[in-house]
Amino acid sequence: MLDKKNLEEIKKETERFFEKIGFVKGEIKIDIEQTKEDVVSLNLRTPTPQVLIGKDGQTLRDIQHLLRRILRKDLKQVFLELDINDYKKKKIEYLKGLARSLADEVALTKKEKILSPMPSYERRIIHLELSGRDDVRTESIGEEPERKIMIKPSTQKD
Prior knowledge:
CATH class of the largest domain: Alpha Beta
Helix content: 40-55%
């Protein structure tokens, strides 16, 4: 379990990181909390989130990876979850809603639906959201980076 000193150090290192990439104090606000035993959730607030999020969240994922590497030098057991202006939180809610809506349509029409290609963590959200349903099932198809999800009626034969 991380203590208050560890959380302050994580916050200082994060501020230092963003200063080095060109953000000055006042341009970002960092909210930090420990959500699970060794999971630290950082949510940045900035008036220019698109610069840090990037296309389809790729820059955000890259920044999170770099910050994890930097922080693990001092704190071996920390797992960092970075979000910017609640981008990930909103994306997760959108994906869950999309999954439920398409699953309802598939269950009603008995016709499969294929979603657009998406990264593995987004596919995982959809698989998990629909895993408790008996009327549909999900399957990842294709090869990276074009891998996508197919939602099928559960009575459909393969």
